[in-house]
Amino acid sequence: MKKIKKSLLPLFIASFMMLVLSCKENNGFNEPVSADKTRPGIITNVKVDNFNGGAYITYDLPNSDNLLYVLARYRINDKTVRETKASYYKDTIVVEGFAKSKEYDVTLYTVSRANVMSDPIEIKVHPLTPVYEYVQPSFKMGEDFGGINIQGLNSLNKEIGLILLAKNKITGEMEVQDQFFTKDATVNYAVRGFVNEPRDFGLYVTDKWGNISDTLTSTLTPLYEELVDKSKFSVYNLTTDSPIGFGWVLPNLWNGNTGGDGWHTASGGHPPFVASFGIGKTYKLSRFVIWERTGEYTYGLGNPKDFSLWGSNKDRPGEAQLPLLAPEGTQLGDWINLGNYHFPDPPSGNPPGSTNSADETFVKAGVSFNVPFNAPSVKFLRIAVRTTWGNSDAAHIIELSVYGRPE
Fold it and tell me: Where do the structural domains in the chain lie, given as residue ranges?
């Protein structure tokens, strides 16, 4: 792998920069008018405690009745000067967003209610390695089905942005393909939609102040995947499957109609709600897409909330009473747990029962779930629903699509 200069990268991170376009932070200080033009005293006994990308500055406030806040002014990189403020109720101000672990000048003022500034106090801070640089060496790219897998550690649990680039074969330029923002300590996700041929990819880390790491590049070949042919699916009834209810039939689960009838268990059941079926031949699965019931049922009633996918590559896999939950990779007879899943919470942030049109649109589009790369190849599947959004005594799914590589 090699690195390319960050100056050549397009800065398509507008959504991450909205917080800092003004390069100032006023923290809600609406300064009242005062007729007292007396210059406030300066802060004293200044101490610095550096952290990754910033520093805490503590001090003693002057004995000034007209004091409103303390102001810090500092440059975080070659382009940006920031200002942060701390109320006169506090004895600490935070300066952050520095691009490098080196010495920076910070100018501190006290400001009165009449907007009169004190004489400046010049101090120096030396931030520890900024978060975006601290985490960058842990990230790596790898080939995945239909795309690229990105893994790494964000051990400080600070917000970072991961920007994936790919070379445009016509222009020869590296162009942004995906932007992923997270505070999670462990990062593992895939960007799909690439053809099965070699291509140059790049990855860099950014933060909410617009700082950008060096870019890691590699030539990768996304793995081939295809939509498993639903016309080859078949019902595989097991006595431990949940009874079907309401006149629905299991083949509705793969009839291609994402807005009609689907799989629906009978009322009065108990989790896990289970359905078993064959997919025609052996596949190394990459992912699957679920369409839940929408309208009045969105994030409610029998729509799956937590569920597992089990698989088998036997010609006629036997019975197995599936548990509510088992670790990934658990083997029960002819069946193995391929993964445990949680249907994403409503994107709006609203609780179930108060969802909005954005949540409805999200569910109607279908939600994709990855099958772990180390999962075995299978030709039979079982879905086992542990909980539903409405804590119902039945479960329902409208449509299921499965992707993978035929064996």
Answer: 2-14+131-223, 31-125, 227-406
Residues 282/298, Cβ–Cβ less than 8 Å: no
Q: How many residues does the chain have?
A: 407
* Residue 108: its H or E element: strand 104-112
Torsion 112-115-121-124 (CA) sign: positive
The CATH number of domain 2-14+131-223, selected from 3.90.1580.10, 2.60.40.10, 3.10.20.30, 3.40.50.720: 2.60.40.10
Helix (H, G, I), strand (E, B) or coil at 254: helix
Contacts of 126-129 spanning 24+ positions with Cβ under 8 A: 126/50, 126/55, 126/101, 126/102, 127/50, 127/51, 127/52, 127/53, 127/54, 127/55, 127/96, 127/98, 127/100, 127/101, 127/102, 128/50, 128/51, 128/52, 128/53, 128/101, 129/52, 129/53, 129/101
Identify the CA nearest to 273 among candidates 379, 372, 387, 371.
Answer: 387
What's the pLDDT score for residue 41? 96
pLDDT digits (tens, 9 = 90+) for 18-27: 434 344 444 5
Exposure b/e, 391-402, CB count within 10 A at least 16 = b: ebebbbbbbbbb
Indicate the fold that domain 31-125 takes in CATH: Immunoglobulin-like (2.60.40)
Report the alpha-carbon distance of residue 20 to residue 235 in Å, rounded. 55
Taking the chain (407 residues) in runs of 10, the rounded mean pLDDT of each run is 42 43 46 75 98 98 93 96 96 98 98 96 98 98 95 97 97 97 95 95 97 97 97 98 97 96 97 98 97 96 98 98 98 98 96 94 96 96 98 98 97
Read off the amino acid at residue 326: A
Say how far apart CA 217 and CA 170 lie, in whole Å. Answer: 19
